[in-house]
Structure formats: C-alpha cells, structure tokens
Specification:
Number of helices: 7
Order of helices and strands: HHHHHHH
Helix content: over 70%
Largest sheet: none
Shape: globular
Distance between the termini: 47 Å
Length: about 180
C-alpha cells in the first residue's frame, strides 16, 4: 500500500494545481485511507484500499461538476491531512484525540485558504499533502523525514509555481521565436 500512497503523493506534489481533479481525488484517497485505517481496524488491506479508492473517485467525479465547493472540501482534507500528520510526528504521548483536533484545525485553515486564494492555495496544499504522503511512507529516522519533507515541499512548490507562471503568461506577451 505504501507505493500507492507514494505515487499519489508524487502526483499531488507535481500536478496538484494543474490537474485539479487529481488534487481532489488524491487527497480524497489519502484521507479516505487514513479514515478507513482508523475506523475499520482489523480489516484486510483490500477493504481499506477499496474504501479509499471509492472516496477518491467520488471526490474526483464530483469535483468536475462542483469545482468551487469541492476545492474548499479538498482544501479542508489537505490541510487536515497535513496537520494531523504533523501532530502525529511531533506528539510524544500519542493521545488519539490530538490528530483529530489537528485535522479539523488544519482543515478549516485549508478550506479558507483555497476559497480565498485558489491557485496559490492549491499549489501550497497539494505540495504539503504530496510531501506528507511521500514522507510518511519512506522509512527514515525523524530527522531524515524532516529533511525529506522540506525538500519535497520546496520542490513541489517550485515545480507547480513554474507551471502556473507559464499558464498565466498571455500569448501576446510571450517572446517571439
């Protein structure tokens, strides 16, 4: 299952803003998998995978028709996924309520950001979610995970920022060949 989360994380990291339905579907899958892992404890991996796949596909399909609403929901899920992952990483006493509180707080911030600043927020949140998904599935010591997360986050923001700036340049102002 780790390679699937790494693949989805890479897609989010590189194409989250450009292919907005990938962002929504990928974040839906990751959040669905985390949720299913906690709620459906003891179930086979394929049940968790199918649950996550159903959530991700539903999110991607709905995103095509209800873009703004789904972007805010995806922003909520991405912000929540990132902040709950961060809470788990830095928490030493493993209180089960802390990741849920972090998820709600991160989700609210993510939803507000995507509603107010759509493209920059999509770049930031998809890079955060992608870097989180990859880092959580690579076996490294905590210091290595922190470095990997930071490098991936910066890389994702730069790649998507370059893609975004190329799209925003009007054809009339492009240099002549």
């Amino acid at each position: 299952m780790q390679w699937i989360e790494i693949f989805i994380g890479a897609a989010l990291l590189l194409f989250g803003r450009r292919l907005f339905w990938v962002f929504v579907g990928g974040v839906g899958f990751l959040a669905g998998f985390d949720f299913a892992s906690q709620v459906l404890r003891g179930q086979p991996q394929w049940v968790l995978f199918l649950t996550a796949l159903a959530v991700g596909l539903a999110a991607a399909i709905v995103s095509i028709f209800l873009q703004r609403v789904v972007v805010a929901i995806a922003g909520f899920l991405a912000g929540g996924y990132f902040l709950s992952g961060l809470a788990v990483a830095i928490q030493h006493n493993h209180q089960p309520v802390v990741p849920w509180i972090a998820f709600v707080v991160g989700g609210l911030v993510g939803a507000i950001l995507t509603a107010a600043l759509l493209d920059p927020a999509l770049i930031l949140l998809s890079s955060l979610a992608g870097a989180t998904a990859i880092t959580q599935n690579v076996p490294l010591p905590p210091a290595g995970q922190g470095i990997l997360f930071t490098v991936l986050l910066i890389f994702g923001i730069i790649v998507q920022g370059v893609q975004y700036s190329r799209v925003r340049v009007p054809a009339s102002s492009a240099p002549a060949k």
